[in-house]
Amino acid sequence: MWSDNSVIYQIYPLGLCGAPYENDGVLTHRINEISRWIPHLKKLGVDTVLFNPLFESDTHGYNTRDYRKVDVRLGSNEDFADICAKLHKEGFKVMLDGVFNHAGRGFFAFEDVLVNRENSAYRDWFNISFDGNNSYNDGLWYEGWEGNYDLVKFNLNNPAVCDYLMDSVKYWIDTFDIDGLRLDVAYMVNRDFLKRLRAQTSSWKKDFFLFGEILGGDYKQIMNDEMCHSATNYECFKGIFSAINSGNLFEIIHSLMRQFGPEQWTLYKGAHLISFVDNHDVTRIASNLNDERNLAIAYTLMYTMPGIPCIYYGSEWGIRGDKSQGDNALRPRIEEPRWTPLCDTIAALSRAKKETEALSQGDFSSLVLENKHCIFQRRFGDGRVMVAINIDDAPYVFHFDAQAGRARDLITGETVDFGGGLEVEAHRAYVLCPY
After folding, report:
1. Phi-psi region of 427 (alpha: psi -120 to 50; beta: other; left: phi over 0)
2. Summary mean pLDDT of the chain
């Protein structure tokens, strides 16, 4: 599938484009700014753009009012269709954020319930009791997502709700020619709905890609032949920065061996999970790392582990953002992209990912593992790549069982000798392709 060798760039459009937090109802064509980012994305080597919610909502996008209308704070449907056409013309795939677990209080069906109560034709679209009350004092109780009453949980056991959402996805494909969906809180979404979504989108567009948000547990709950093609690898998201900060590479390598290693019991061998170091819901990687010299190492791990790398806008040049300061701190306005040495490294990693089958399709094994030093290998057919990492403050010489030879570092293009001893500088990673 095209997604197996993809590199995703994630944009939170309401933030990047500087839309006001509250929906002011004023049509402003902010989404057109994305056109200015296309050269940056091409230079970075990404090939897929994921847009977080951009349909009409009450505030942050996840409290949807209208699933078939681009938020007026961003522009019109025609504006976004033009952006999608430009991206497709440049060879990008386009993905949207599918928010199917809940809607906003401004959603038309819920507004009808508030007015017509028991007589509403939509009363069974939600989980409602007219004998209770809620924090908005509506004189009725309804289920909000994780107790958040601005997020009204759908009753996905109701075929009418599912039909509406399916028709909305068909509209997105027909209007914007999208290539896939990220499924918000997919771990909570009705499993029969996920099965229907997979079947219908596959029939509407060949190789339509679905990946689901799941925070823990067995990713196969939602990632299988009937539901999502992929899932968010939160275990390794945490493992990357935690292992680097604690000087304990055992943590991340243990997770990678558990998920993708050679043993019979390996959980996700052959799967292509979504790899990331940050996103719109978590602290930025530059704020999560104790030592910013390790930023390139974090991205090297993200790109060279099995999976589909996903970059969150702005983090490729190391902007900061702390979850403790609220979601808005993670979703800032950025008028123009920047280019730094970290971007050079990420662009080189994108090229390596696309040009080297061992990185896009290969198996995973650990060759050397110490607290602050490791070498792991990706192998596919006759090709292999070795990734050597040193998070120590001093250079380190690896001694491992490998036939002496030479390799090209896929990040810098330099020739590196290895075998009898491989010296790696402090806070440095090599991605070595032997020849």
Report:
1. left
2. 96
- Packed helices 295-304 and 341-355: angle between N→C axes, nearest 10 degrees: 10
181: nearest Cα among 393, 339, 3: 3
Amino acid at the residue 131: D
Q: Kindly tell me the number of DSSP H helices and DSSP E strands found in the chain.
A: 12, 23
* Residue 403: per-residue pLDDT: 64
Which residue carries 């991340």 as its tokens? Answer: 252
Cβ neighbours for 116, distance < 8 A, ≥ 6 positions apart: none
> pLDDT digits over 232-261, tens only?
999 999 999 999 999 999 999 999 999 999
| Helix or strand run (H / E) with residue 379 | strand 373-380
Q: Which residue has the tokens 């290998």?
A: 377
Strand partners, 212: 183, 231
* Kind plus residue range of the DSSP H or E element containing 31: none
Strand partners, 57: 64
Q: Strand order of the sheet with strand 363-369? A: 363-369, 373-380, 383-390, 428-434, 405-409, 415-418
Q: Tokens 């940050």 belong to which residue? A: 278
pTM listed for this prediction: 0.97
SS3 (DSSP) at 311? strand
